[in-house]
Amino acid sequence: MAEIIKREFTIKADDGVTLSVVEKSTGGDNQSKILLVHGSGCGWEYWDVPLNNYSVMDGLAEEGFQVYALECRGYGRSDRPDGRTVTASRLAADAALVAREISEPDERIGLVGHSSSGIVVLMAAAQTPENWSRLAVLGAPYRCINPQFEAYASQMIKAAETEGQDTVPNGHHLEIETRLNEPEEEIIKWYKELISASYPRIPAAVFADVVENPTIPLIPAVQVPTLLINGSNEYVVDPKDALDLLNDLGSDDKGVVILPGSYHLPFLEKHGHRDLLACLNFWFSRN
């Protein structure tokens, strides 16, 4: 098996914010590129869980892809501007900027977004279709939100308004083991420690964008081939809403996959991370 090479670098956005990017590949020539964009509760690391062969990045690299994970502004090693400016529109522009920086002229790359960044990547696909070959959207709401998550998002919005802060306390990892399929104790321990140490507070603006979803009017304009991926026990996405999103997408090349038994964070699940990897490998290997 070829050695996986890891590289970390930064890209300067048009407004001066520095964005951190992690790359993994086996170093081969002419490898297809995929950009991964994390959701609101964690930074890039859940794409690269360092235990028990859970790493989605390693799995994709072993399949011959050149994989990049963006650390969104407001998170981890990227700059942290006012959290009220970290909107879906701003993050979509960041993703497009990173794509241009890591690709060759006229090259299109794959794009994956999870949860709130599913909204982000759909917006990027509608606004900058020239950048993208294929799109995968994992656990992203559309016109309505599963009531279980709507209450949490509303709580975060209220917290930002009450505290007058640009960030809000991050509590999504609390009791996360109750919202995973066959959780392994050491994976849960790693994740909770990661959130507590690196992401105790998160940008406030994203929760309003999840509830109001500014991408809705853009969905019919999305012509990039798109795969929707949700867990059968998903607690953010409403099942009917996911089918509405599938039907409204402008692309003729589209589909939906339901991961059996999975919840909202399959990267942390014993079977979910393998099922997710299989879906991504299948989708981005298509011509």
Task: Describe this entry's structure for a reader.
The protein has 287 residues and is of the alpha/beta class. The protein has a single domain, classed as Alpha/Beta hydrolase fold, catalytic domain (Rossmann fold, 3-Layer(aba) Sandwich), CATH 3.40.50.1820. 34% of the residues lie in helices and 20% in strands. The protein is built from eight helices and ten strands. The strands form two sheets. It has an eight-stranded mixed beta sheet, sandwiched between helices. It has a two-stranded antiparallel sheet with strand order 7-8. α2 packs across α3 and α4 runs antiparallel to α6. The longest helix has 17 residues. The radius of gyration is 17 Å and the shape is globular. It starts with a strand and ends with a helix. The model has no long low-confidence stretch (mean pLDDT 94).
**Global Rg:** 17 Å
The oligomerization state is: single chain
Q: Structural class of the helices, strands and pairings?
A: alpha/beta
Strand order of the largest sheet: 1-2-4-3-5-6-9-10
Q: Which fold name fills CATH's third level, the topology? A: Rossmann fold
Instruction: State the CATH superfamily name.
Output: Alpha/Beta hydrolase fold, catalytic domain
List segments where confidence is low: pLDDT < 50 over at least 5 consecutive residues: none
* H/E element order: EEEHEHEHEHEHEHEHEH
CATH class descriptor: Alpha Beta
- Per DSSP, the total helix count is 8
Instruction: Please give the share of residues in helix.
Output: 25-40%
Report the β-strand fraction as a percent range. Answer: 15-25%
Our measurement of the CA-to-CA distance between the termini, rounded to an integer number of angstroms, reads 25 Å
Could you say what the CATH architecture is? 3-Layer(aba) Sandwich
The outline comes out as globular
Mean pLDDT across all residues, rounded?
A: 94
Largest sheet: 8 strands, mixed
